[in-house]
Amino acid sequence: MAPDPWLLMYDSACHTAQEVAEKIQERNRCERNGESTAKLSVAIRSLLQNFKEKTERLKDLLFHSVSTRQITQLEGDRRQNLVDDLLTRHRHLQASFKNEGTEPDVIRSSLMSGGVRGGVMNPWLVEEPEETRGLGFHEIQQQQWRIIEEQDAGLDALSSILSRQKQMGQEIGNELEEQNEIIDDLANLVENTDNKLRNQTRHVMMVDKKSTSCGMLVVIVLLLIAIVVVAVWPTKK
């Protein structure tokens, strides 16, 4: 994985601030010894300007990374704290350069505090979060890679869960469609059966009515025959 440009520039800003602190201390020593400090003052002004430009560039890059979601919100907050600390250190170094009462405490803390990278003190890790305090640049970078890998793994797991839920939803939808088709078929079958039952009932009633009519006709015929027989019977005697 390629190094993070933001962290590289942050590391460069830390080295510039370290150099400013060393030169301010050297200038103050020359002043106490009555030596010329003109060249050192010019160099310090140039370094302070360079330090400020790098800090401003870090702010711009951080804003772009957060707005485009290239880094997490947690990492954005952590880097914002680092930028704020750089701005504070710049003000302190600027005041120390102008002998505004911040020397020697600021210079001493700048030279003695912070992490170490390649044998060079980093004076800007004093107010870092606990999880990165005392770590060098490469250690912080590796930590960020691990965090990103863990986040990627979490996103992959979440994507897998959402994919399974989507598949389950589709299967449930398909099952509901099949059940609805079965219910529609049953409703049609019941309706057809009911129609057939009504038709058969009407047919039976018609047959029963015809049977009743035929029975009555037979009875009438038999009665007529009986009447005729009764009427004829005395005549034969």
Layout of helices and strands, plus pairs?
Layout: H1 5-32, H2 38-67, H3 73-97, H4 105-112, E1 116-117, E2 120-121, H5 137-236
Antiparallel strand pairs: 1-2
Describe this structure in words.
The protein is mostly helical. The chain has a domain at 5-133. The protein contains five helices and two strands. It has helices at 5-32, 38-67, 73-97, 105-112, 137-236, and strands at 116-117, 120-121. It has a two-stranded antiparallel ribbon with strand order 1-2. A hairpin with a 2-residue loop joins strand 1 and strand 2. Helix 1 packs parallel to helix 3 (73-97) and helix 2 packs antiparallel against helix 3 (73-97). Keywords: Coiled coil, Membrane, Phosphoprotein, Transmembrane, Transmembrane helix, Transport, Ubl conjugation. The chain crosses the membrane at residues 214-233.
Query: Percent of residues in beta strands?
Result: under 5%
Major beta sheet, specifics? 2 strands, antiparallel
Strand order of the largest sheet: 1-2
Q: What share of residues is helical? A: over 70%
Order of helices and strands: HHHHEEH
Rg estimate, integer Å = 51 Å
- Average of the residue pLDDT scores: 79
Ends distance = 139 Å
SSE-based structural type: mainly alpha
**Poorly predicted sequence stretches spanning 5 or more consecutive residues:** 101-106, 110-127
The total of helices stands at 5
- Principal-axis shape: rod-shaped
Number of strands: 2
